[in-house]
Amino acid sequence: MPLTQAEEVQNNNKVFDELKDEYRLASYFLNNLQTKYYKKLSDEDKWHYLEAFWKANDLDPTTDINEFVELIKVRIEHCNTFFTHFKKGWTTDRGRIYIKHGKPYEIIKLKTTSSSKYPQKDFQIWKYRITDYYTYIFIDLQQHGDYRMIYSENDPNEGSWPDWDNYVGSDFDIGLLY
User: Fold this and answer.
1) Which residue, 10, 112, 124, 141, has fewest beta-carbon neighbours within 10 Å?
2) What are phi and psi of 62, to 5 degrees?
3) What is the per-residue burial (b if ≥16 Cβ within 10 Å, else e) of 131-149?
């Protein structure tokens, strides 16, 4: 049976049917205060909170379609296509960053050298230079495609591993981050 217009609009203010998945996705954008508030709510109120979150981020509230939700759905599809390795791509470190910021301005793909903690591991530098200057380093420690973020620059919601530079090696060209 086709959805009514009201059901379509309602469905357009969420991405997942499972509360835990919907929250995990929204948490990529929430600050600490919002997260603490959310955790105190009943399940029903959590759904209302998340619906309000998506509505508040709608890129064009004058339309029936929530363009922000649609954009996020496209990014999730991309993440699940390209970053899925033993878990859904949207739940990976690269997936989280891609969902938050979209396609990087530049991706540099390298291998660690013998001077690093783990020689011959693939790693990537992602740069965003459009509105904010963010830089991230992801490394594939197990060599099975699950890249872990070890470095973040200028993103207050993401952290770096204290010894991230040991993973890329002493001969790493720091200029690649800028």
Assistant:
1) 10
2) -80, -10
3) eeebbbbbbbbeeeebbbb
